[in-house]
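DATA SHEET
Item: assembly model
Revision: 1
Owner: S.N.
Input lines:
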Amino acid sequence: MDIGVALVTSHSPGRLQGSDLVFVDHQCMFTTIDTTEITEIRTAARAGVIAIAPLVIGFAPFALVVGATIGASTYHEAGIASSWLVYGGSAQIATVRTLESGGAAMAVLAALLINTRLLVYSASLSQHWRDQPLWFRLTAAPMIVDPVWAVAEVRALQPGSPREKRAHYYGAALTLGLAWSVLVVAGVVLGSRIDTHALVVAAPLCLLFLVGQRLKDSRTAMIVIAAALGALVARGLPSGLSIFIAIIAGCVVGGSLDRRPSSEELS
Amino acid sequence: MTAWFVVICVGIGSLAFRAAPLAFAGRTASPRTSRFIKDAGAAAVAAITVASFDRAAHAGPVLPLAAAGLLGLALTLRRASMLRIVAAGTVVYLLMSAAVSHG
């Protein structure tokens, strides 16, 4: 459908006022978007950028480490492309390192096991985005990663229209995606000049903050502890497998807590 | 060529993980399923955190990392901002790393 856009001036007849944008399709149907709605979208997108900004700064050292790891490998182009195709630091590092040590099949398996958590993040957001259109859900999907999920889930629980929530998500997700890509390339270019030893602690601390955001009740705390213990016990296994086992451990504890009678029921 | 093949395979798989639940988001999940998904989210972020600390432990000294982690955890529980957590943890890590290497 061809859509024309016209800027209507104050001389326009009828209910159109000021600088309302008018979208005109081939059947001459008119749809107006009020300037207040455009302001609303801009404000929401800006809020998304502001919400993700501390996480971008926090994860910046990790992106440089990922870039430096790719730079030190023999897979520069494919490694850089993984920033958009794989888009997840742990999986990107696992892909490059396992390719060099364990072969192609193991690299695919390790990276996919690490990224199984994305299935969980996506399922979590799908609970909040039932009223969002399919086009949004499908364009939002490729940008889901730990910090974006954390920001989107917090925003989803706050009041606001679906349009505002979409703008907020795009503001946050595109900011992180752009920054991540630039920083990974910077890491590849700078390579060994980056002191990765000094930066290596930044990513775990950022993730620790994301864990802290979820510790709102004792039940969630138990699930987090169980998952952390599960990941610790299974850490000798390939990294993706340990994450998978930890998620299962957390869910099993959550399920068993639900089955346990509460103190009110006992009394 | 192998590297491109691997990256594309992982990319397609990752996209499937990201898109599949959202493609069917219109369906209403039972309360039990909703709770399971919520639990899995908290467990996933805890798991990737531990994996990230484990990876860092292979790249540098463990004692400074443990100290930075404990400080980070304490600040997290006190609802400190992310920048404060990262800054304080990194400073402790670098100072202790220097002390360990000189000691």
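QC remark: Residues 1-20 of chain A have pLDDT under 50 and may be disordered.
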